[in-house]
Predict the 3D structure of the following.
Amino acid sequence: MIKRGLLFGVLGFLMSFVTLFLYIGIPKPEEVEIIEPSIEESLSGWNALEELLVTHLREPVSFDDDIFVSILMQDLMKGITSFKRITITGYSNLVLWDSDQSRMGRKYRGWDISGSEEGVKITDTLLMIGEPITMEGTRVGYLYVYISNDIKAQDIAINGWKNYMNILAYSISSEVAIKDMKSISDISRHTVKRKDLLHFTVLSQDGIILEDIDKSLVGEPYKKGWIEKARVRSAEVVGNSLFISIPVNNRGNEVGEIDIMVRISKQEVAEKKTGIFGMFPPELTRIKNLIYPIVSFIILFAVGWMLGGAPTAIRSATEVEAEAEEGVALSGERLEIEEELGKLKTSRDDLISEIAEKQKLGSELDKEIGEKQSLKGDLDEQVQAAEKIGVQKEEEEILFDSLLKEDKAGSAEQGREELELTQRIVAKRREEIALSARVEAKRKELIELERKADESKGGSEE
């Protein structure tokens, strides 16, 4: 029944699959161009970094305090790498701080993007990102970051997010130490709103969730989940996702950690879209389309299972009727064979009974023959005695002829006795011959019965 169910299920799956294939149609070969990730997508981490730096620079830039800005940037720059240049300007576009110290105090000569110098400017060698610094809604300066444009977009994205994580760990170190969840949320509020963010979790040293995309988890003990699946202490790219986990240190002690996973794009190459094995459209492998063949398989598997003795393939009514008639004929023939076997068994039993009776009769005949042979021996002795008596009689007749003549009446009586004895001997011999003939006939009959019994046993065994 399992095989029948599987056969029905496979047939149902194939019929449904072929129907879908005919409905969707054979995919036409077409040229497909996979566009390389845009610069804006690869700069997501750098944009997050600029937003975080602006929160630190807002107050000192508003006071136009180049000393304060320098002290602050000296600490922040410990977590920033993979850049060409960073510039911070204040009022009148004067440079308050620059990674190139020779440019500090000069007027910044930047670029013009819609008159605001905000956004991204791209050249053959550089990517320039501009972010305004505002204080109570008033622009007080600009933050500019220059990045080399001679590396892959994926590497640019990885570097940006690594730098952001280092600055974030520095920014919330004291808040993580005292578990100030509100301050941590204020500092990271721009991050959790990003569309490319998949996971973001801040943990204390004792495993309490201090910040997460899912706000309902904040304040709860962390249970094993997504972090364990991609646990590393450095950037790790899996598919098109980037996972970063870094510790949070405060005054030389580790007080927690930050784990983040973001979606990044990577370059893919595909020359032609010809479908699966060059024939089947990719849409066939989608879950919503595969549901129909799977459901068909399950339903027909159940039908095949319940049918039990039903035929394993679809056949015509004529074939079914012919097989039914053949089955009836075979059943009749089988009944005849069984009846014949019954008769043979009965005949065999009768033969065995008859053989037993013949064997019993043979034993009786053997016993009778023994008795007759014993009687024959007695008769032979009597004959020998009679012959001896005859010889003696002849001698007596020669010697005593005279006496015999005198006693004729006695001689006649003796002659009659001898005649009767001879007749009795002849009769016994005839009886012995007849008995021997009967014994021989019985022996032949017994042999024939034994032959029939052996033939009956051989037929029964076959």
Summary: The chain has a mean pLDDT of 75. The chain has 13 helices and twelve strands.
